[in-house]
Amino acid sequence: MKAQTYSQEVVNLHTHSFYCGHGSGQIREYAQAAVEHGLKVLGFTEHCPVPDSRWARTRMDYEQMTLYEQDVRDARQNTPLTVLTAYECDYLPQYQSYYEELKAKTDYLICSIHDLSFDMDREYSVFWNTLTKEDLALYTDLYCKALQSGLFLFGAHPDVFAYNYHVWDDEAKACSKAIIECAASSGVALEINSNGMRKRKVKTAQGERYAYPILPFWQLASEYPVTVVTNSDAHKPSEIWAGLDKVVSFSQEAGITLADYTLQNGVVSLGT
Fold first, then answer.
1. pLDDT at residue 266, rounded to an integer
2. What are the structural domains, with CATH classification, of the chain?
């Protein structure tokens, strides 16, 4: 089959549903919303469970994985959409082989870091805790290891640390620079995530800003040969492509050119 190229405006490859426990809506409802918004390609990226069952309340159960994958396959019926099956993986190096198994049976994987806890009895989410400089160093290390793992199509919301790290100081700059350099050297794209634009704005000494994405991160990224994509990170059908106009304006302000997607024989890849 001839390769087809799609612009960001008609593709969303970061989508959740009721399966994640903090989203709503059935898979088929997202597919219908995507058609109504004129999308051509829709990828579902439910949060995958972790072998040791940590973070269980914000992940599907293992028993649900088969149901989720079948629901996505069913959504491919009687629709003009190309519908892809994927997972969003909070990367833990000790489970590399597990992620490899997931990649082998899906269309792609994306990586992210939501939690910095290595204690299975508690969660230390970047959304729920004010991050310290030590936390930021750990976030950077994990994110870079994910990008270098060879598993992922793109890194989701790499600047999400800014949700609870409100200053653009030397540590934030070093974190951002390290992640961007890892992405560039590994050939893995980074994502401008519009979900942060839908959250309450953050007040800083410089004024209000989005929770994420943050402009200094992406202005820095514009100086490197890194591929950049954007997605809605929808958690309900009405968000299936919310904020596209804001993302386009934001990327232009940052000096970022968004990449196109190429799809051939069900395999998705990225251009520059």
1. 81
2. 4-270 (3.20.20.140)
Nearest CA among 213, 209, 206 for reference residue 243: 213
Distance CA 51, CA 59 (A): 12
Q: Checking DSSP bridges between strand 189-193 and strand 228-231, what pairing results, if any?
A: parallel
User: Full-prediction pTM beyond 0.90?
Assistant: yes
> Beta-carbon neighbour count of residue 95 at 10 Å?
17
- Residues in the chain with pLDDT < 70? 1, 53-58, 117-128, 272
Distance CA 187, CA 203 (A): 34
Q: What is the rounded radius of gyration, in angstroms, for the C-alpha atoms of the chain?
A: 17
The pLDDT value given to residue 53: 66
User: Residue type for 129, please?
Assistant: N
The predicted-structure confidence for 238-247, as pLDDT tens digits, reads as follows 999 888 889 9
Q: How many residues does the chain have?
A: 272
pLDDT of residue 76: 96
> Which tens digits make up the pLDDT trace of 147-158?
999 999 999 999
In this structure, which amino acid lies at residue 96?
Answer: Q
Residue 221 amino acid letter? A
